[in-house]
Amino acid sequence: MCTDCNDTNAPRADRRQFLGLAAMLAGGAALSLTAGRALADECAPFLADAQAATTPDQAIQLLADGNARFAANASLHCDLLGEMKATAEKQTPFACVLACIDSRSAPELVFDQQIGDLFVARVAGNLPTTEVLGSFEYATKVAGTKAIVVLGHSHCGAVKGAVDKADVGANLTTLLDAIEPAIAATPLTGERSSKNHEFVEAVAETNVRMAVAAMTANSPVLADLVAAGALKIVGALYDIETGKVSFLA
Ligand SMILES: [Zn+2]
């Protein structure tokens, strides 16, 4: 926990030393990185040695741990400006998140992460556009992140609009059309409208699963990293009523 966020020396040194130790232990299995982070200073900037010591599974666990803090209303309150200065020369985040633009699903808040921890792409309906894939190719292949999370959410306006075939304007219609394959792939029980809550939530999950599949199907760079065990791509759904994120199996 962040016991003294303004102490710029000892806690960060402790965290770096721990992560260096974790890196020395083959696989890090014998010593839980997340357990170590809980004992060290979660507010310390996530620097290159920490990134190198983190496995894809551990990156996902860090996000799960952060969401548990958020959902328990126990988010950290760190020295964000200090973290920005510490990562100004070089950023080494551990994960990428593709999320909706929804005002309630901000990844850094939902996963309780700090400056320099995440690459974030946001577009209505959390769609894996060419620009998003290109961004994540950079974030993983060049900048070394270990995990990608596609974060859908409950009560998604983009999904509702697509289900209702909303026709607001050419650009928005094009965006909503990109969710149509998820609608077509989701078994329909009851009416096809945004009033059918179960259907809307089911489409949101299908949409996330299709986005995860599209990451490797449409990006040889990401596919190669996954095949090599250097990257993990997972889907997740965020409940805007409870604040809890459920990772999809
Ligand atoms: Zn949304």
From TrEMBL:
Cofactor note: Binds 1 zinc ion per subunit.
Alphabetized PROSITE patterns for the sequence: TAT
Binding site for Zn(2+): 100, 102, 153, 156
Cofactor list: Zn(2+)
CDD domains reported for this sequence: beta_CA_cladeC
Coiled coil regions in record: none
Keywords, ordered alphabetically: Metal-binding, Zinc
InterPro entries cross-referenced by the UniProt entry: Carbonic_anhydrase (IPR001765), Carbonic_anhydrase_sf (IPR036874), TAT_signal (IPR006311)
GO molecular function: carbonate dehydratase activity; zinc ion binding
PANTHER family attached to this UniProt entry: CARBONIC ANHYDRASE, CARBONIC ANHYDRASE 2
Record-stated family: Belongs to the beta-class carbonic anhydrase family.
Listed name of the protein: Carbonic anhydrase
Species this chain originates from: Paragemmobacter aquarius
